[in-house]
Amino acid sequence: MRLFTGLRAQMLALGLLALIALPWLGASLGRALLGEAAQAQTHNALSVANGVAQFLTGRPELLDPSLDPALQALEEIVVSRARLIEHAVRLDGKSQEWADLMGFADRHQLSKIDPALKDPPDFQSLFAANEEFLYALLIARDKHIVYRDRNGLRLYRSDHLRIELIDAEGSAHHYAISPTKAGWINAHLLKGDPLDGLPDRPEIRIKGMWKEQGDGFLVELRIPRDMLGPKLEATLSLGDVDEADAENPRVTLLNARHSAQPGKPASPPSAKEKPLDDSRGKALSALLGGFRSFAGQMVIVDKTGRELARLGAPGKDDGMQQTRFWTPWAHRLLPTAPQDANAQALARPVMAAQLTQPQAVWSRDDPLRAPVARAAAPVRHGDSTLGAVWVETPLDGLQRALERSAAGLLGALLSLMAALAIWMGWLGLAFARRVILLRDQLHEALDPDARVLAAPTPARAPDELGDLSRAFTLILVRLDEHNRYLAGLADRLLNHMYAPLASARAALQPLQDEQAAADQNAAQAAAQALQALGPLETLYTALHQSRELDRALAENDDAPFDLTFALSGGVNSLKQRYPEADFSLERPTDPVMVMGVQSAVALMCEKVLENAAQYAEPGSTIRVELARQGGMAVMTTRNLGPALPTQMGDRLFDAMVSVPPEGTQPPADGLWRPGLGLSLARRIASRHHGEIIAQSLDAPSGVLVTIRLPLAPI
Fold first, then answer.
1. Most buried among 166, 215, 390, 675, by the most CB within 10 A?
2. In this protein, which residues make up the domain named Histidine kinase (predicted)?
3. Segment 288-329, tens digit of pLDDT
4. Span 468-490, pLDDT tens digits
5. Domain check: are 489 and 368 in the same one?
6. Is 51 a domain residue?
7. Integer distance in angstroms from the first to the last C-alpha of the chain?
């Protein structure tokens, strides 16, 4: 039985926690296998992307129609549809907020270029809408920007933007923007014939930002939707002027028209929105059709990020089943994707259009889902990039098995750790409770004089603490037996001492009286013999008093009594025994009630007062005070005289210790002191749950004895 309940066995059980290293090693092996599989799948995806890109390099016209003379140029007017967004666009002249929508941008250029134009203009347009505004972004290529003169009235003699809005009633409203410098811009409502470009008044509801950049400029516009009809019909015409000083400068117009049903969700351009040439579409479809068995996605984009062809759809990965509360944390046992800067660059197909070199990486976008391997290869034509091939394939084979095993392993570990934590907590509380109980039992079993008050009940637990409790109990039983033996020995000693002492004194006293007149020497010898009996009689009286005190404390029950009465009785008794001593008593007028044996407490007060009277300076006053402090009755006795011996310390209250204060002679009466008075006083104070302290006084020199006893409950 001890083999399973001892502390050593319990500590051995804690050591078995090392077994968790075995499943952890299994998880580490799974992590390594998944990492190798992910790297291999990533290389496969890169090989597929490179193969398709190499094919498209030989067919550049499939990505850029300008490289095929048989393809027609883009139309002068392209109808666009705004992308639906939920946030507001900040008009700051920066295109970062439009980055995710650039794949939907339209390019505008002249279908027939006049040879007289030195720098034919072209621009890209992009529309976006939320619940309040229609936003437009125009990125123009114009190496020669002409701004309007501050004092000029005509808006068409410089680079400008013409705006035509169709309201809810179908009426057209014409506006123009002709800035004097780059920065914030506002539109002007045109009056009369819109072709004249004469401003009527500013239209502050149409706001925008005109910013120069590179070889042209960028314009951001914000138009309230309440100025438009339900179809959000608007036409933006970019007017390019290269000869600002001419009387009638030549204006080249490029148009971008917007028309869409409001609230339609944004989606990638479809064949209906931006149709590809039939031959291009068939060629790209035929190319991707050869990879139908490919497990993943393959997307071909042009250099603007526009999606031209797609194979496959985003896989539906349900991730780990949420069967346990710890399941979301199981991915921590699985390998994490390497920290690669290319992971973000390959997150979406539109970002692959910016690459110049083939790249591949595997990553985990969601910790609860399988990682994916992504690769992208650019399609090059000379020094320029025509587009890119983006490939994504999920790693959901070995990953699924590892996720299930990791979730189960984590659940088992959490359950084991929870059980161990509860067990350790209970074990610690039980251990502490038993140690505290043993300490309290030992503290209550002994008094300050090492007398056994009550032996504790030995513990029955068959462990080391139980052995310790039983050992302490046995020691206390042996100590109690020894104390009883000493007590019986003292009783027998008193009985044996009483008769010889009484007989000796009875025989010597008459002899001293009879021989006093006849033989002086015999009388002196009898007196010396009687004097030698004095210490033995004093010792007998002290031992008898100690035994009587033990009987009184054992036989009498505690009862409330007035401490002032016991203290006054002790002072009066000492005044009679020491008439030369001067006692001063200060006490409360009302009773100071304490619990205990009144005769024992009175004896304690008498012993303390007697000690003060024996060593007080002649003619000095012994001050005795009684007061209440909190829940304690405090009695102090202060006498002037030599200080206590520094070498005594706490031994002053030990039995059979009697050392006079420093610098003093034995008491004037010449009687030997057995050293039991203060020992009895400490026993009585401890029996009544109090304390007694003696300390020296410096100025003036003396001794202060303080007794504290608990007040009786009211």
1. 390
2. 492-713
3. 877 877 878 888 888 877 788 888 776 554 444 444 544 555
4. 888 888 888 888 888 777 767 76
5. no
6. yes
7. 53
Which residues pair with residue 224 across a beta bridge? 133
Q: What is the pTM of this model?
A: 0.38
Does some domain include residue 6? Answer: no
**Contact residues for 670 (Cβ-Cβ < 8 A; gap 6+):** none
C-alpha 637/C-alpha 702 separation (Å) is 10
We report the CATH number of the domain holding residue 702 as 3.30.565.10
State how beta strands 122-129 and 83-84 pair.
parallel
Do 584 and 692 have their domain in common?
Answer: yes
Q: For the CA atoms of the chain, what is the radius of gyration?
A: 55
**Of the residues 518, 552, 586, the one at which a domain ends:** 552
In this structure, are strands 307-311 and 297-302 parallel, antiparallel, or unpaired? Answer: antiparallel
Contact 692, 654 (CB under 8 A): no
Same domain, 185 and 78: yes
CA dihedral of residues 471, 473, 478, 484 (deg, nearest 10): 170
Q: Are residues 27 and 109 in the same domain?
A: no
Looking at the structure, tell me whether residues 59 and 95 fall in a common domain: no
561 and 642 inside one domain: yes
- Give me the residue label for tokens 């009544």: 688
SS3 of 539, please? helix
Verify that 304 and 389 share a domain, yes or no: yes
Q: Which of 230, 258, 286 is where one domain is finished?
A: 258
Q: Which has more pLDDT, 34 or 649?
A: 34
Strand 621-629 to 582-586 pairing: parallel
Residue 31 lies in a domain: yes
Residue 581 lies in a domain: yes
Parallel, antiparallel, or unpaired: how do β-strands 133-141 and 216-224 relate? antiparallel
**Where does residue 101 rank: exposed (0-12), middle (13-18), buried (19+ CB within 10 A)?**
buried
Instruction: Pick the closest to residue 127 from 275, 211, 229, 236 (CA basis).
Output: 236
Question: DSSP letter string over 525-563?
Answer: HHHHHHHHHHHHHHHHHHHHHHHHHHHHHHHSPPEEEEH
517, 522, 524, 526 alpha-carbon torsion, rounded to 10°: -110
CB 188 within 8 A of CB 177: yes
The pLDDT of 164-169, averaged and rounded, is 88
Before 700, cis peptide (omega within 30)?
yes
Cα separation, 35 vs 399, in Å, equals 10
d(CA 532, CA 672): 10
For the domain that residue 55 is a member of, what is the CATH number? 3.30.450.20
SS3 call for 674: coil
How many structural domains comprise the chain?
A: 4
Looking at the structure, do residues 372 and 395 belong to the same domain, yes or no?
A: yes
* Segments forming the whole domain that contains residue 673: 556-710
